[in-house]
Amino acid sequence: MKKQWWHNKVAYQIYPKSFYDSNGDGIGDLKGITGKLPYLKDLGVDIIWLSPVYVSPLADQGYDIADYKAIDPRFGTMEDMDELLEKAHSLGLYILMDLVINHCSDEHEWFRKACEDPDGRYGKFFYIRDADKEGGKLPTNWRSYFGGSVWEKLPGHDDKYYLHVFHKKQPDLNWENPDLREEVYRMINWWLDRGLDGFRLDAIINIKKAIPFRDYTPDRDDGLTSIDNMLADATGIGEFLSEMRNKTFRPHDSFTVGEVFNEKPEELPDFIGENGYFSSMYDFSENIFGRDLAGWHAYTDITPDDYKNCVFATQKKVSNVGFISNIIENHDEPRGVSRYLPEAGRHDTGKKLLATVYFLLHGLPWIYQGQELGMENIPVSSIDEVDDISSIDSYNVALDAGLSSSEAIKVVEKYSRDNARTPFQWDDSENAGFTTGMPWLRINPNYKKLNLKAQKDDPESVFNYYKKLIELRKNSKYSDTLVYGTFKPWLNDMHNIMAYLRETEAQTLLIAANFQESEQEISLPSRIREIVLNNIPDFIRSEKGMILQGWQAVVLELE
Ligand code: TEU
Ligand code: CA
Q1: Ligand 1, from 49, 168, 200, 332: best to mutate by most atoms within 8 Å of Cβ?
Q2: Are 208 and 270 in contact (CB under 8 A)?
């Protein structure tokens, strides 16, 4: 595998609205991020992805863009963006923007002009279909990711519908139209010419629809069907993704990471192989585990063994293909420590264990803001406290399925995207030091104890453990093995044990963790040369190898 500049890097995701508010309006902003770049440099991360900061009505918190070439005033100005880029580069940091090109906002100029003249140039930038005059049947029976039909009446045209696989304020862009594609490529190159280092590509698998449009088997009483069925039927996305790469990312040697769900296994090399459409893509296998088309209320909890099996399956799938991007959470998922750790393990030692097992896998490790502190899900007592549109939809779906409102709230509490979006907990002052104003979203009440100020100078804190993991992966003594070493499961059948080897000719490292309270003895493939990292003070050797105590995780160099 040809070595790339970013292979030995560590990446970090910022959700700008919740990172740091520099002007007291309760909303995080670009100046707030620029001011915290030294913090990120000290943490040791290199590549920083910003969730959207473009002009937007924020119907889906910025993933509904009304102007791709302008910064939303709530986040700042283009000058603020240039200053962020310049400061970051002066610190040796790389900046990625979010590329949301499956859809734009219904307040984007393109969509306004499409409504004015549906048969004109901009009408063809979208999927507009005539309403069925006889039976009033919708063009297809697809269900939006955020609930309800994907078809909405075109404003001003009662006889026409437009397609939106996400929210109705997020009309899909018609990628079948080369004129639209060229407009998108011009916008991408405009940003890359400004010195941007690359992009995270949003919901990108959705740009290729199965054509001709048709219905699929309904999977709920609403007579609608999940988008998954249409995507499974779609082919040929490579034509768009290779064209985009060739006309934008490649000429700029940009770093790109795809948010890809529903890819077909055989497509993996095309996506992230040697000559892939992207530099990398996320492993969502553990995120989608236990999902059910009926809705969040029907999801199944993931156990430590399930988690291990998901992760190991992906490691096996990608190992000779390319560099996967490893996460435990992002702005769409609940906090990893609240999801992948059983209740009894949700303490600092458990949080360090979870950090160890995902961070040292083969691939690029990503940290989501606040994860480095061990931030947790936020309690929810009423739906009025909830901001996330997909949570509100899932709450109503749960009620329709017969759950009581308190049962439905419990479901929302578990899976809500708000869990990841609560403001960053900088200290124990009012509003956790995030803002001097009224925060746009509730602060997690646990901020008094769980905050950066409390952890920064505590050598045993989760924060400083993340720093150790980042230093370890960059330590020339181990980095070749942790970046390019092969991946091999160890003791795969042992319950609640997650262990694997990272190996090169020159070195063998064993990562082993015990996802339960009671100790377990494990055998070792060979003698211990060095204890490289341990999330607890003790280390007990045994006849067979060693005793892993409750929630203990270790990294060992073996002979
Ligand atoms: O998410 C794409 C996506 O498919 C996810 O919405 C996923 O299905 C959902 O979050 C599961 O809870 C991206 C962005 O990450 C998300 O924030 C946006 O809402 C969405 O695209 C639309 O832009
Ligand atoms: Ca602000």
Answers
A1: 332
A2: no
- Residues annotated as catalytic are 202, 259
Amino acid at 127: Y
pLDDT tens for each residue of 198-222: 999 999 999 999 999 999 999 999 9
Distance 454 CA to ligand 1 centre (A): 33
Measure the CA–CA gap between 213 and 142, rounded to whole angstroms. 10
Alpha carbons 223 and 235: distance in angstroms, whole number? 25
Task: Give residues whose Cβ lies within 5 Å of ion ligand 2.
Answer: 21, 23, 25, 27, 29
Stated pTM of the model: 0.98
49-67 pLDDT, tens digit per residue, is 999 999 999 999 999 999 9
- Strand locations in 187-244 (E): 198-201, 225-226
Residue 442 phi, psi (nearest 5) = -55, 145
* Of 418, 311, 290, 300, nearest in space to 354 by CA: 311
The residue to mutate among 14, 97, 144, 145, having the most atoms of ligand 1 within 8 angstroms of its beta carbon, is 145
- Rounded Cα–Cα distance for residues 237 and 62 (Å): 25
Could you tell which of 106, 202, 230, 366 is best to mutate to test the pocket of ligand 1, judged by most ligand atoms within 8 Å of the CB? 202
Q: Name which of 42, 38, 31 is nearest 71 in CA terms.
A: 31
Q: What is the pLDDT of residue 388?
A: 97
What is the enclosing helix (H) or strand (E) of 68? strand 67-71
Residue 74 near residue 29 (C-beta atoms within 8 A): yes
Tokens 């360090």 -> residue:
352
Distance 439 CA to ligand 1 centre (A): 23
376-391, pLDDT tens digit by residue? 999 999 999 999 999 9
Pair 524, 500: CB distance under 8 Å: no
- Taking the C-alpha atoms of residue 180 and residue 101, their distance in angstroms, rounded to an integer, is 10
Question: 203 C-alpha vs ligand 1 centroid, how far in Å?
Answer: 6
Using CA atoms of 493, 376, 373, 510 in order, give the dihedral in degrees to the nearest 10: 0
Atom of ligand 1 nearest to the CA of 333: 12
Read off the pLDDT of residues 393-447 as tens digits, 9 standing for 90 and up: 999 999 999 999 999 999 999 999 999 999 999 999 999 999 999 999 999 999 9
317 class by beta-carbon count within 10 Å (0-12 exposed, 13-18 middle, 19+ buried): middle
7 C-beta neighbours (distance < 10 Å), count? 16
Residue 145 CA: nearest ligand 1 atom is 8
Question: Is the sign of the CA dihedral 494, 498, 504, 507 positive or negative?
Answer: negative
- For the chain, the maximum distance between any two Cα atoms, rounded to a whole number of angstroms, is 79
